[in-house]
Fold each of these.
Amino acid sequence: MPTYVNPQKCDGCKALDKPACSYICPNDLMILDVAMGKAYNQEPDQCWECYSCVKTCPQSAIAMRGYSDVMPLGATLTPMRGTESIMWTVQFRDKRVKRFKFPIRSTPWGSIDPYAEMGEPPAGELGKPNLAGEDRWLGVDELAVPERSLA
Ligand code: SF4
Ligand code: SF4
């Protein structure tokens, strides 16, 4: 289920260069209403439910409505992310609150080099539309490139 912004908590990320939710959303759904100084999800139907915006919001202003098998309809779920753990807060319609804390990593902070196995791209690769390591992860020597129609 899609996310939504609590305008009472959102401060528009005015201490940052740009709104964190807007920066992180892979589908460019979160935008800032400049006049109001508040962000909102402009197209909830297109939300991928990745919850990147929820987890990155410094004000914990973004919540989501979870599926009914996780929590009863009408409850909200809000995370508070730390460096070692994440705390999920469920607020039920009858105002009861429950919190669940989970570790988010098993390695020391800053110890992962996501590009360690990637190496420098060969000359000319930067001009291609492939994503980094895409052919390797897909187990092929080369990705098929669709023919362009000039018609
Ligand atoms: S990240 Fe949070 S505080 Fe910042 S603009 Fe988005 S909803 Fe508002
Ligand atoms: S949950 Fe993911 S796709 Fe949906 S608005 Fe947030 S960042 Fe964008």
Amino acid sequence: MNSEQNKPQVLESIIRARKTDKITCEVEDRRPVPDERQQHGNAIVLHSLEVAGWAPFHYPSNDKNIHEPWRAYVLWDEEVSNLLRELTNEHRFKQSKLQKLTAACSALVLVTWIPEQRTEIREENRNIINEENLAAAAAMVQNFLLMLTAHGMRNYWSSGGDLGKPDVFELLGIPKQERLIAAVFIDYDDMKDLQPYKTCAPGKHRDKRTTNWIQQSSIHSKSP
Ligand SMILES: Cc1cc2nc3c(=O)[nH]c(=O)nc-3n(C[C@H](O)[C@H](O)[C@H](O)COP(=O)(O)O)c2cc1C
């Protein structure tokens, strides 16, 4: 089989291999990512984001220089540790699960989508644009997860909980009009070799999949 014929199989295997891996550890167990692993891992994450940006989008954002209706905010090892310190010290952040996920991750990418700001646009049209911007951002996130999976990096798409709050946005310099669609927790350990101080849990719905949602459409014509 030549490489052209093999493409669907390769793509299918990556799509099927993508899975939620919720990796956590105790806050006090967080360890820095070794330099060499960081360099290698960070380059993969950046490249994966660039590729993910080939997702389709219908409406450009209002920023003339960045047309895509999504943004990705990347936190490397040191920034993750700084964020963790804030999440742990500040009483307003209550989600211990979020802290444990942050403590265990090697890198964290917050993906936002950009709601339509122009007030002269009718609400009905604004809602359509917003739905499509959200959909486009979701396509970009899925591309990103697939690239990480292809590189053998465990990942988890979380809604983000407290990470979507205005004070975290302010802390990270994310414009307040943006909306968090995904907090992608990434682990640089080898897929086969998870550090023993970390634990890994699957997504709740992983094994509930069917193909029953694929329905044959029929036309119920009203004309005689
Ligand atoms: C938009 C979105 C948000 C999600 N947020 C969460 C979350 O906050 N907490 C969680 O446990 N799982 C979250 N998930 C992951 C799902 O639980 C997971 O995809 C599902 O259980 C199926 O498992 P799989 O990804 O391994 O196929 C989210 C998934 C999506 C698409």
